[in-house]
Amino acid sequence: MEKIKLGDYNLMRVVKEVDFGMYLDGGVEGEILLPSRYVPKGLKVGDEISVFVYLDQDERPVATTLQPLAKVGDFAYLEVAWVNEYGAFLNWGLMKDLFCPFREQKKRMEKGQGYIVHVGIDEDSYRMVASAKVEHYLSREMPPYAHGDKVSLLVWQKTELGFKVIIDNEFAGLVYADQVFRPLTTGDRLNGYVDRVRPDGKIDVTIQPTGRRNTEEFSEVLLQYLKDNNGHCDLGDKSPAELISDRFKVSKKTFKKAVGDLYKRRLIELSDNGLTLLQK
Q1: How far is Cα 131 from Cα 46, in angstroms, rounded to an integer?
Q2: Residues 75, 70, 89, 114: what is their CA dihedral angle, to the nearest 10 degrees?
Q3: For residue 234, how many C-alpha atoms fall within 13 Å in the half-sphere facing its CB?
Q4: Number of C-beta neighbours around residue 92 at 10 A
Q5: pTM of the predicted model, to two decimals?
Q6: What confidence score (pLDDT) does residue 216 get?
Q7: CA 100/CA 116 separation, integer angstroms
Q8: CA–CA separation, 157 vs 235, rounded Å?
Q9: Is 278 helix (H, G, I), strand (E, B) or coil?
Q10: What distance in Å separates the CA atoms of residue 225 and residue 232, rounded to the nearest whole number?
């Protein structure tokens, strides 16, 4: 069998049943215990099972059917469970907390606070560790994206320009403040759309579709709003951007394009009092 992936999911075969659990075939790692509390009902010798493998309190590989908040190679937002003289210990959903040594902290972590970290394996000790110095683990390759590509975002930190995000668990990106039409906080996960990839590899991202697709999607949202509100909206293309953003979470530009789209389709009429749905 392939070498066991520490800090990741592995498909393993049951080789022995004991009073305190079942042993799984770990190949060169030897037999790995799946404790009784994680053994699914009906599992028997010879069966295969997908488990997450990590190190127990004695630094021995152990298996679990629990799903942690992150695996090796992931970026995640984790909360500090406790701190000692060696570093911080983060809650990642397993019995044993994830260690973040002081040398991998940007500032001293505090109990109860959450931080964006990268989960990796320390080459010297072969232990799983977290690092808050996430920029060291982001890809420096030229991003493969094109305008409009849909991506997964993890909100990293707020800056003067907007919000730094981690894209597809690999690249750094930026959502500009004037493109944010909903509350964002560090640790949020959401979908985004690539606006452009700069020549230096930096990525500008929006949190709503770009171009024509955005107009089409919001046109349907606006149309449904009119249907749900007696065929009327008191906002129009001359309304302040702040009011449009507060109600619909889109830019005034997107709102105006959608209004134009519905008007061309002869679905609405415009007036100083806003928009009215035409009866058919």
Answers
A1: 38
A2: 60
A3: 2
A4: 22
A5: 0.76
A6: 65
A7: 12
A8: 33
A9: coil
A10: 8
